[in-house]
């Protein structure tokens, strides 16, 4: 190998080392000082604001009235034959007809 090739390799290696030292110093200083480029939004934040927006034209039903139940824990609700409403609550079930 000629001395000019060795000098080029040393110059390239020295440049890489200098850039690495500058990078380590820059990122190390930012880490220590706590300046990481400002506040970034949390990508894992649970935000439901988008889901609160509602287009009323998408409704396929209209609430007529509420059915009062004296039970504490509602487990399930279904509509069966004759349009009866079947409700399971507090380890029992009830059948409500259309009149309730």
Protein described:
The protein has 2 helices and 3 strands, in the order H-H-E-E-E. With 100 residues, the chain is an alpha+beta fold. Among the domains are: 1-36; 71-100, no CATH class. The chain has a 3-stranded antiparallel beta sheet, with no helix packed on it. A hairpin with a 2-residue loop joins strand 2 and strand 3 (92-96). The longest helix is centred in the first third of the chain and has 31 residues, at 3-33. The chain is rod-shaped, with a radius of gyration of 35 Å. The model has no long low-confidence stretch (mean pLDDT 83).
Q: What does the main sheet amount to?
A: 3 strands, antiparallel
Number of strands: 3
Pick out the low-confidence regions: none
| Rg of Cα set | 35 Å
Whole-number mean pLDDT: 83
- Shape descriptor reads rod-shaped
Would you list the SSEs in sequence order as H and E? HHEEE
Keywords:
single chain, about 100 residues, alpha+beta, 3-stranded antiparallel sheet, rod-shaped
Write a concise synopsis of the structure shown.
The protein is an alpha+beta fold and 100 residues long. It has helices spanning 3-33, 49-52, and strands at 74-79, 85-89, 92-96. The protein has 2 helices and 3 strands; from the N terminus they run ααβββ.
């Amino acid at each position: 190998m000629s001395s000019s090739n060795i000098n080029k390799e040393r110059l390239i290696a020295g440049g890489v080392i200098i850039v690495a030292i500058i990078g380590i110093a820059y990122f190390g200083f930012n880490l220590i000082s706590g300046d990481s480029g400002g506040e970034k939004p949390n990508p894992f934040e649970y935000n439901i604001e988008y889901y609160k927006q509602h287009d009323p034209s998408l409704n396929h039903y209209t609430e007529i009235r509420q059915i009062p139940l004296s039970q504490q824990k509602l487990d399930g609700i279904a509509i069966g034959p004759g349009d009866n409403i079947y409700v399971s609550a507090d380890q029992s079930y009830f059948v409500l007809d259309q009149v309730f």
